[in-house]
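Can you give me the bound-state structure? Components:
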Amino acid sequence: MKARSFHGVSSIGQEILLVVVILALFAVVGWINPRFVSENNLTSIFVGNAYIAVAAIGMSLVIISGNIDVSIGALIGVLAVISGLLVTNGYPVWFAWLAPLLIGAAINTLVGCLIAYARVPSIIATLAMLSILSGGLITFTGGQWISGLPGAYQLAQFRLLGVPSPIWFMVGMTIIAALLMRYTAFGRSVYAVGSNPEAARASGIGHASTVVKVFAIHGAIAGVAAVLFATQLQVIQSTTPVGLELVIITASVVGGVSILGGVGTVVGSTLAAILFAAIGSSLIFLNVSAYWLRAVQGVLILATVLADMARRRRTG
Amino acid sequence: MTRILIRHETILAILFVIALFLMAAQSDRFLTTANLLNQARLMTEVGLIAIPMTFVIVTGGIDLSVGSIMGLCAILVGVFWQNAGLPLPAAVGLSLVAGTAAGLANGIIITRFRVPPLIATLATLALYRGLAEGISQARSVRGYPEWFAQLGQGQILGIPTQLWLFALVAIAGIFILRFTTFGRTTYAIGNNEAAAEFSGLPVERTKLLIYTASGFISALAAIVFVSRVSTTRSDMGNGIELEVITAVVLGGTSIFGGRGMVIGTLIGLCLMQILQNGLSLAGVRGDGTTVVIGAILIVAVLISNILGRFSND
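Here's the bound-state model for the whole set.
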């Protein structure tokens, strides 16, 4: 059992559970209000939240490695604004798409070094980054929204074979990350570092370099999420989306990534992001005030964490 | 070990004096009794929560939910008073009970279910803020009576009322952490929880009490806040955990537990507040100061890590 969970196989149970819950939610809410399962609404659920699922992939890597990142929401906000400013200041569109990836990777490499080499706990390093990034963003932009984005820039509004591009990104990146985590030496070293740092170090897996790599990849993925976020509407809001980091962490944890590190898969986190988006949308169709959304999120994460702890104690 | 502690606090105190002089040289509005008292008034809410947070971090834990408890308790005062029609003192009392219960819930999740404090309080951060938003439906409550404003806006013997309250909590904190068995148990848990457990110390009960106290004091801070601004909104206390943790860590408490003092927290708090005040007097806007707080937090942990490494050698 231990050896299986090491490769994240045991959380397949969590993934099947999530699929069942998602289908049940669609069935029940669709039965109460058929407009919930209209093509229009389904598309908007997936397209509007794909960037959360994408960001949750990187977050899962971070949590599997035994760390956490509470600055992800602020980072996405900053990278989205950078991307928007580049394109509205005449830089080519491809550059505005690519720059957030590189800058995100650069910023988080720095954070990774702080955590891995200077031994600043990840919660402290990223809490500090949260205030630096969000405070810096508002100071820099003065709260001004970015508009006048060219049509060719709107990546999230493109379609390929009739399917909106965010869905391609979400599915494609989930599959790539799942394969990477499952079949490469890097993937296994992430699990090793998260489940038992001492043993990993003893067996010659570079703890520090793995953590830095995880954060760099997480930063680049945040760049993709930021581009999807920036290009889905005609304007880019210049403030950090409130509570976005919690939504992303919730998706990872509810998706079966153990908060103690070492266990979990990215497929589960993507499913959880979909579930969470569907819950948000269903509140509207059930005429429940959207102000309860965060409470629902809190209950979900708490329930999952408690279940995780109970399961761990049972398997010893 | 005590030498390192003394050294950290001495460095901090010297930094504090230097900062005072720099600020005074920059603006002649800074070193006035009115400004200093007003700054003290503004830091009371963060300061109150920083006292139990020092205990929490000394045990090696963390409480990220304090800002959300503040928001929830602020909302509850308004709801109990205006919507449920209770007299205001009863509403305040019930809100304090609710905050204590929220802290107790944190403690139970952490001790009974063995959820790491970081994750437990991250979850309740979302839950308590969500409850505040859901209950208030983004409506704010105003029109509190004159006498209620006394706590947050009035003064006793020329000193802001809430500072008396803060002094009481701070002195209690110093005394308990320094001179009681409870305080020594707190350090023991932070140094080596398993060893503390095997030595027969009441580890669970101590942690439970500390997280409960954190909830209670967060509720108290909420009452002070509501009284100071005469209104309640569900986003009150948002992000305050960052300021509180920064003050505690800046004050020399090790984020890994086992080391720290309430006095250090108080100096860290004052240093942060005059820095913010100085920056705003120099024309930096509020959001710019959060950048500075974040940077200070990283530097503080780096310095404490380096000092820690030297003391191990």
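A couple of observations. Residues 2-315 of chain A form a domain with the ABC transporter involved in vitamin B12 uptake, BtuC fold (CATH 1.10.3470). Confidence is low (pLDDT under 50) at residues 1-9 of chain A.
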